[in-house]
Specification:
Radius of gyration: 19 Å
Helix content: 25-40%
Shape: globular
Oligomer: single chain
Order of helices and strands: HEEEHEEHHHEHEEEHHH
Largest sheet: 6 strands, mixed
Number of strands: 9
Strand content: 15-25%
Number of helices: 9
Length: about 280
């Protein structure tokens, strides 16, 4: 894929997202997330190249691309977990350090130390720590909020179970509950559907739909092309943005082939999904 071709495709959707069909009118305040010309390299090897996008309020944003495309790195760059070689990230118009509590992160399960001696309730309570100060401890209010969060993800009965003894899908639900307990306005989720069954996937999507209806912004790294139609906005990423905008305009055969380089086994699954979704996704 040539740089010129990629930029040409990206500019069709990324260049003027506020006017793209399907996008809500721009909010009068600063955007929840604005990334401008972000570049990241590991040991001199570029991972992200000139990535720029704005995530509006109350939208479910999906990020898809091949392995090594920089999807997880982009989330970590937004969170300040990896250093930008150039570019800026603003959260509600401010540097993240000034507003960190308003951003919650659900990492990949493989990045978690499952031997750490904590229960599901302990993990969820961690979401309240940011508001307690350096020496604060969760009290009745925080435990009540944690119970509510566990109930929202259907994990009330597992509150006292060690996190290691939960299934992959249950662990994902617990980390979602931790993000809910944080009461953040922005949630960044890295592969939340990895290793979960169909029922858990549906439950997570239902929860995300409720959160966006409340005005929260969710950015989700996802590898499953069969669920693209569930996202309000879609970013196709392969080190740089191939296309970004309303899913029905971005999830085209041409854009997917530019992103994945003709990996037909993945693209055929996407084609099937688009066909089943009806004419509005063609």
């Amino acid at each position: 894929m040539s740089s010129g071709t990629t930029q040409a495709v990206a500019s069709q959707v990324v260049g003027a997202p506020a006017q793209a069909p399907g996008l809500a009118p721009a909010d009068t305040g600063p955007a929840p997330i604005e990334v401008v010309n972000a570049m990241v390299a590991y040991d001199g090897r570029p991972v992200l190249r000139s990535v720029s996008f704005t995530a509006p309020k109350g939208k479910l944003v999906g990020i898809v691309g091949p392995n090594g495309a920089g999807k997880s790195t982009l989330l970590k760059a937004i969170l300040g977990l990896v250093r930008l070689d150039s570019g800026t990230v603003r959260v509600f118009g401010l540097p993240l350090k000034n507003i960190r509590r308003r951003v919650a992160y659900v990492p990949q399960t493989e990045a978690v130390d499952w031997d750490f001696p904590v229960t599901a309730m302990d993990v969820v309570l961690m979401g309240s720590y940011a508001g307690l100060g350096l020496f604060g401890r969760p009290g009745v209010k925080q435990r009540t909020e944690a119970q509510v969060a566990l109930e929202q993800v259907g994990m009330t009965d597992f509150a006292d179970r060690h996190i290691r003894r939960l299934s992959g899908g249950q662990q994902q639900r617990v980390f979602l509950a931790r993000a809910l307990c944080q009461q953040a306005d922005i949630l960044l989720l890295d592969e939340p559907f990895a290793g979960v069954d169909a029922a858990t996937e549906q439950a997570i999507f239902d929860l995300m739909d409720r959160l966006t209806a409340e005005g929260k912004t969710l950015i989700v790294v996802n590898h499953d092309l069969s669920v693209l139609d569930r996202f309000d906005l879609l970013m196709l990423l392969n080190q740089q943005i191939v296309a970004f905008g309303p899913t029905e305009h971005v999830a085209t055969d041409e854009n997917l082939r530019l992103t994945y380089g003709g990996r037909l086994s993945l693209l055929e699954r996407a084609d099937t999904t688009l066909q089943h979704a009806g004419p509005e996704m063609q």
